[in-house]
Design goal:
Blueprint (H helix, E strand, L loop, with lengths): L5 H28 L10 H11 L6 E4 L7 E3 L4 E4 L1 H4 L4 H18 L3 H30 L2 H38 L8 H33 L2
Parallel strand pairs: 1-3
Antiparallel strand pairs: 2-3
Helix pairs in contact: 1-7, 2-4, 4-6, 4-7, 5-6, 6-7
């Protein structure tokens, strides 16, 4: 049978539901703890700089970037880019997110293998994301399993990227949680608040990986017909 069937939505819906829940939880948790400042009074940018100094990392710059929660670490330029809600904000949410991104900078400085693998997968994942659906959907609607198989191969790179992202993000948060206290960015009793923000954000990566895996499984089944 040509075209998508109900099985596709059976595979897709769980990931979409989890993604929606994760997005709402992340926003609500960030908003909740954005009203609570750390006892140190640090901004997100100041917390990030303190953590970099604590770890002896001198070659990473910090700059503001537009976009809500667009925070990220760019390993190619060794730049920590923080959103307006994080860069200049004095809150547990801002500090948690900023220190998480510093966690990636620490991974880079310490040659953390999963981060290197994820970076190596970026070109293939980008190509897979851009081209795979043309082959997958084209193959499904034209009833051509050959096209679906090509799409599966391309999409597999994007799925692999989503999977390897999980340990990378978890490790960055784990480093942040540990070092926020040892570097005197937050008091031990305050760590729970920042941790809740990071745990909610991690759920979004889980949802993305689950959605990608389920879609891939569906198209693998279609390719076997």
């Amino acid at each position: 049978m040509f075209g998508l069937d109900m099985t596709y939505y059976f595979f897709l819906i769980p990931g979409m539901v989890l993604a929606g829940i994760a997005a709402m939880l992340t926003k609500s948790t960030f908003k909740k703890y954005s009203k609570q400042a750390a006892s140190t009074g640090l901004t997100g940018a100041q917390a990030a700089q303190r953590l970099l100094d604590h770890e002896g990392i001198r070659d990473v710059s910090i700059e503001a970037v537009r976009g809500f929660l667009s925070d990220h670490y760019d390993p190619t330029s060794k730049t920590l880019r923080l959103s307006p809600e994080v860069y200049g904000a004095r809150s547990m949410s801002a500090i948690g997110v900023a220190c998480h991104e510093v966690g990636h900078a620490i991974q880079h400085a310490r040659s953390y293998a999963p981060l290197a693998l994820r970076s190596a997968l970026v070109p293939a994942a980008n190509i897979g994301n851009k081209l795979s659906m043309f082959f997958l959907m084209g193959g499904v609607f034209l009833g051509m399993t050959g096209l679906i198989k090509v799409g599966v191969i391309l999409f597999s790179a994007a799925v692999a990227f989503s999977i390897i992202t999980l340990p990378v993000e978890w490790d960055a948060s784990a480093r942040a949680k540990r070092l926020m206290v040892t570097s005197s960015i937050v008091a031990p009793q305050e760590l729970t608040y920042a941790s809740r923000v990071l745990n909610a954000a991690f759920l979004t990566y889980v949802a993305a990986a689950l959605t990608a895996i389920l879609q891939l499984l569906y198209f693998i089944l279609r390719a076997r017909e």
